[in-house]
Design a protein that fits this description.
27% helix; 2 domains; 205 residues; elongated; alpha+beta
């Protein structure tokens, strides 16, 4: 299972309910130290280590890089740095099967470069051979359905007065907090419901 960071929803009464403000309801969060910059990659790193240990023991890669800037591309491998990068949206919104397939795809690229250098084409016969060896689908791209991702994304900002955070479906120039303060957020954090947690838990992406 892929471990994801969580943010637990609580109200100003610590009851986990919605809070009414200005005729509408808002989610109120006690962030504390629970929110992390990006989803953790411990499980992803373990997949990489297991594959390399079994199929290319002479190759060592640094920890997988999680990128919040990767929107259309879900994964990549940089040969000059021997670095696998994975989209933070994939880790937060993708299912375990999709995450594993993207990671294996990039591991295959790493192994191809380790064995043959720059000679092979990106998805040529060497790549297809390695994919079959490690159990990845020998395709030019990983087919991941992202149709519902945008509908699950929310935006979070923190109140400067009462230090709780609220969530909206879109970034807004101004928003009124449950405490009555009108806010003009300079930035919004992107979050999504935690697929493996309770209904009131979120992961930042």
């Amino acid at each position: 299972m892929i471990d994801r960071s969580r943010v637990t929803k609580v109200s100003d009464e610590q009851s986990g309910s919605w809070t009414r403000s200005g005729g509408s309801y808002q989610l109120v969060f006690d962030l504390g130290h629970q929110i992390k910059d990006k989803p953790p990659v411990i499980a992803v790193d373990e997949i990489v280590k297991i594959m390399l240990r079994s199929h290319e023991p002479g190759l060592t890669l640094p920890s997988v890089r999680v990128s919040g800037r990767m929107r259309r591309t879900l994964g990549s491998y940089t040969p000059t740095k021997k670095l696998i990068s994975i989209s933070s949206r994939l880790l937060a919104l993708g299912n375990d099967g999709d995450i594993r397939e993207v990671v294996l795809h990039e591991v295959a690229h790493a192994i191809v470069h380790s064995r043959w250098g720059e000679r092979p084409t990106a998805h040529g016969k060497e790549f297809r051979s390695v994919c079959q060896e490690i159990g990845a689908k020998p395709r030019r791209y990983v087919d991941v359905s992202t149709d519902d991702w945008d509908s699950r994304i929310r935006y979070l900002s923190k109140c400067e007065s009462c230090h709780v955070s609220i969530v909206r479906k879109r970034r807004m120039k101004s928003v009124r907090c449950a405490c009555g303060t009108k806010l003009y957020p300079e930035s919004w954090f992107t979050v999504a419901p935690d697929q493996e947690g309770a209904a009131d838990e979120w992961v930042r992406i």
